[in-house]
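Colleagues,

For the teaching module next term, I've prepared a clean inverse folding example: a structure given as tokens, and then the sequence designed for it. I'd like students to try predicting residues themselves before seeing the answer, so please don't circulate the second half yet.
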């Protein structure tokens, strides 16, 4: 079973990018998501609890994240939620992870410029014996 979740938050760490021996691109970063609410008694906005997520993107998304996302930026992440309990001899805890399907800047807080990355088949030379249909 997988739950799809969409989260807005602040990128807490610069993305870490690795390429596996099999050639798979993987990027991950920590995301902090805090809820603000208006307290009518004090007549001001107050910060709620902060939830922490590890966000992971694969393949082309990993490349795009590495080139586009930086610590401190506000983003929107959608993907599959995974909650895992862990335990050592001294401690125990829970990791909350998102396997991202999409990541982008939250335009409520600023603007961004989009640059399309050409696909490999778009940049490959066309065969000389077939006319280019475009």
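(Answer key — instructors only)
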């Amino acid at each position: 079973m997988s739950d799809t979740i969409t989260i807005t938050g602040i990128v807490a760490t610069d993305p870490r990018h690795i390429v596996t021996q099999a050639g798979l691109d993987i990027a991950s970063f920590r995301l902090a998501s805090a809820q603000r609410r208006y307290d009518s008694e004090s007549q001001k906005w107050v910060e709620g609890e902060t939830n922490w997520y590890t966000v992971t993107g694969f393949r082309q998304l990993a490349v795009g994240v590495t080139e586009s996302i930086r610590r401190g930026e506000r983003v929107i992440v959608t993907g599959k939620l995974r909650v895992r309990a862990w335990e050592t001899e001294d401690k125990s805890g829970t990791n909350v992870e998102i396997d991202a399907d999409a990541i982008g800047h939250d335009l409520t807080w600023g603007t961004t410029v989009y640059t399309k990355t050409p696909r490999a088949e778009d940049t490959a030379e066309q065969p000389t014996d077939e006319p280019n249909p475009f």
